[in-house]
Write a sequence for this structure.
């Protein structure tokens, strides 16, 4: 989490530098652009792409069983176990 936080702050500093110096922002086309948008949340709110990222994150949080993540504080199959009964 610390690494992700440092990368995110560095990314924001980089984008601020580009915006203040009126330089072009990195392209969001292609596979590299898809990764850039996904990793740094470059999509605007209230867009389909943003909503899909939110749905993917919520699905991961709610549907991945704690046992798969080897969570010592939680056991069982989580929501999948409840739905599968």
């Amino acid at each position: 989490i610390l690494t992700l936080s440092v990368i995110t702050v560095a990314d924001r500093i980089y984008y601020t530098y580009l915006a203040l110096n009126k330089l072009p922002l990195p392209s969001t086309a292609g596979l590299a652009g898809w990764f850039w948008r996904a990793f740094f949340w470059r999509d605007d709110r209230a867009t389909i792409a943003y909503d899909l990222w939110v749905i993917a994150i919520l699905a991961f949080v709610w549907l991945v069983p704690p046992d798969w993540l080897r969570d010592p504080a939680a056991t069982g199959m989580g929501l999948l176990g409840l739905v599968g009964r």
